[in-house]
Structure formats: C-alpha cells, structure tokens
Design brief:
CATH topology of the largest domain: Immunoglobulin-like
Strand order of the largest sheet: 1-9-8-3-4-5
Largest sheet: 6 strands, mixed
Strand content: 35-45%
Helix content: 10-25%
Number of helices: 4
CATH architecture of the largest domain: Sandwich
Distance between the termini: 97 Å
Radius of gyration: 32 Å
CATH class of the largest domain: Mainly Beta
Order of helices and strands: EEEEEEEEEEEEEEEEHHHH
C-alpha cells in the first residue's frame, strides 16, 4: 500500500493520482474527511459504469476512469481535508494508494491603531495559526481565537516603548505565504504636532496672523499646548503664555 502526503490551499484545485494499470477491472475512491461523512466514487469496466455515493460535485474524475482514474477536487475547502484512498483491481493484481490531504487557509492580515494609538495586527482565520512579528522588537504576547471551521485568528499589539512615530511594520508568517503591512499611529496623551494646527479655531488663527514682530514665533512654539488642551481639557482656559501674545 502506497501512502502520500498532499498539501493544498483553500480555493485551489487538487489532483490525486491513482495506480495506473492496464486492463483495469474496477476502481474505487474511498474518501474519509476529518469532519463529516465519507463518500465513494466507483468505476466498473464490465458494465462501463461509474457511480458516486455522498460525494459533492466538486469531487470527480479528472479523466475517463477507464483510461486514467485520477481524482480532482475543484475549489478546495477546509472540509475536504482527510484521507483519499484509491483501490484498483486489474489483471496484474490489487493496488491501494492513499493520499493524506492537508488544507491550508491563508490568514487575512489587518493592521490598525487602537483607541490608545497602539498598532494592532491581526491574522484572521488562518489554518494553521499564523505567526506574528514586528520589525521593531515587541514584547507582545499574541492572543488566539479558534473558530468552528478549524481556523484561528491571532492578535498582537505592538508594545515596545518608543516615542518614534515612524511606520511600524507587522509581519505575518504562514505556510500558505507570508505577508507584511505598515502603519503609523499617533500615541494618545501626547501633544499633537504643529501639523494639526488646522484644528485651532479660525478666530485664533486669524489673530495669530496679525501678531507683530517676534510674537509670531512664540505663538508657533505654543501651538502644541493649545491643541493638547483642546483635545484633552477643553474646559480649561488658555495658558498665560498664549493669552499674553494677544496684548499689543
């Protein structure tokens, strides 16, 4: 008896060969998935007849079974994972060949900033579970969530302590293929950059435009403080460093 291990991915086609012999009398494919009921495909030469029991339309002969009893699975799904055994009866004798089919599900990579400005990377619905790493070293411990269909979602938060706001890159490693994606998050609780100055009320911006002499430079230097108070403590009055600028 011959054994063979085959690995394929969800959505692809898989071709499983059988012992090719001359003067075939009968061929039977016995399919035992890991989940769900078994099914069979059969061919009898004396009746020139094929039959099938409980097999979906996606599982069928690739060619005419009297010439080549190869099996083809179209649009592979996780449910197709299991053992596929071909039994051939020919004038030369009886032959058995079993394929142990493993189905991989590539995860979907998502990368976003959470409410605290922390990069979060998810490898959604992968089989087997994906491995997540970051270009900059992180102490994050990935969390896994198993799904009923055998896939697993892995989540990792970037926890390195750094004030660097350059892009953070998440790398997802998986037998079905590796992926990466980058994102730039702004940590919450820190002073916004001057690039966010458009958030200042129009009246304040207009006033700043008419500041004399060196006061305009002092105003620019205190933009961050204004923005921080607007976003985090809007009920507080402007600091003296700001209001003093408007005394001509």
């Amino acid at each position: 008896m011959e054994n063979n291990r085959v690995t394929t991915t969800v959505g692809s086609s898989s071709v499983l060969t059988c012992s090719l012999k001359s003067n075939i009398t009968m061929v039977t494919w016995k399919i035992n998935p890991k989940v769900g009921g078994s099914c069979t495909l059969g061919y009898r030469a004396d009746q020139n007849k094929t039959d099938r029991t409980n097999c979906s339309d996606s599982i069928n002969w690739k060619f005419r079974p009297d010439r080549d009893p190869t099996l083809e699975i179209r649009q592979v799904e996780i449910a197709h994972e299991g053992d596929y055994t071909c039994e051939v009866v020919a004038t030369e004798g009886n032959f058995h060949k079993t394929h142990h089919l493993t189905v991989l599900a590539p995860p979907r990579l998502t990368l976003y900033c959470d409410g605290h400005g922390v990069p979060v990377c998810e490898a959604v619905a992968g089989k087997p579970p994906a491995q997540i790493s970051w270009v900059l070293e992180s102490t994050s411990t990935p969390k896994e969530e198993a799904h009923d269909n055998g896939t697993v979602t892995v989540l990792s938060k970037f926890t390195a302590h750094s004030t660097n706001r350059t892009n953070t890159t998440c790398i997802v490693s998986h037998p079905a293929g590796n992926q990466s994606k980058s994102i730039a998050c702004r940590p919450s609780g820190k002073l916004p950059s001057v690039r966010s100055a458009f958030k200042i009320p129009v009246s304040l911006v207009c006033t700043l435009l008419f500041l004399p002499g060196m006061k305009i430079y002092k105003a620019i230097g205190t933009f961050n403080e204004v923005l921080y108070r607007q976003e985090n403590h809007p009920q507080l009055p402007l600091p003296r460093s700001i209001t003093s600028l408007f005394v001509f």
